[in-house]
Amino acid sequence: INLIVVRIWNPKVMNDLSFWVLVKLALATRVQFGVGMRFHLSILHCIFFGSMFAKDYFDTSSMLITFILIGKYLETTARGKTSEAITKLLDLTPRHALMLTPINGQLDEYTEKTIATELIHIGDLLKVLPGARVPADGRRRQSSMVTGETMPVTRKVNARVMGGTINEGSSFIMRADKIGGD
Q1: Which of helix, strand or coil describes residue 177?
Q2: What is the distance between the alpha carbons of residues 94 and 144, in angstroms, rounded to a whole number?
Q3: How many angstroms separate the CA atoms of 27 and 95, rounded?
Q4: Alpha carbon of 156 to those of 12, 141, 142, 152: distances in Å?
Q5: 46-58 confidence digits (pLDDT tens)
Q6: Collapsed DSSP state (helix, strand, coil) of residue 22
Q7: What CA–CA distances, in Å, run from 23 to 14, 26, 33, 61, 118?
Q8: Phi, psi dihedral angles at 21 (to 5 degrees)
């Protein structure tokens, strides 16, 4: 039975030409000359009698291919520009942050430690210095902030701050709400 199945699915007519290649050729020929007959007759009419009296259908295919290629080019260009913009946005986040940790469990005295932004966890207290970028999204505990508008916007206590924005005012302490891909 395996030999019969192999011969049906993989019969070789000549060298590397299989039976299924011939079936595909027969089906494609039928479509090409059946459906495409109008196209072929218009080409022959243009060749023998000139294009003044013929209905030109073959220019449509070249225009269609041209529009498809232009569309693919525009899509590739847009995709490249989008990835550039995402890379630039990712470059806005700082590489390091000042993390505050309480001394001996007291909430009024903190030690400052510089850490990589990848090590920030939700709920960490961070200190943002004047002119520095905010390392993560979170809630402001003290002072002012810029949100991306043309003019600086002062943020009040417990207001939301966004990662990557610049602190135009004095330093403030924030609690991280969202980090990394969040």
Answers
A1: strand
A2: 18
A3: 61
A4: 80, 8, 7, 13
A5: 778 776 554 556 6
A6: helix
A7: 14, 5, 16, 26, 59
A8: -65, -40
Instruction: Tell me the sheet residues that pair with 98.
Output: 114, 127
3-state secondary structure of 112: strand
The string over 19-55, giving b where at least 16 C-beta atoms fall within 10 Å of a residue's C-beta and e elsewhere, is eeeeeeeeeeeeeeeeeeeeeeebbebbeeeeeeebe
User: Stretch 110-125: mean pLDDT, rounded?
Assistant: 87
The pLDDT tens digits of the residues spanning 56-67 come to: 566 777 788 899
Q: For residues 171 and 130, is the Cβ–Cβ distance under 8 A?
A: yes
- Do 134 and 164 meet the contact criterion of CB atoms below 8 Å apart? yes
Residue with the two structure tokens 């905010």:
134
* Strand extents, DSSP E, the chain: 12-14, 17-18, 96-102, 110-116, 125-128, 137-140, 160-161, 172-178
Structure tokens at 42: 């218009």
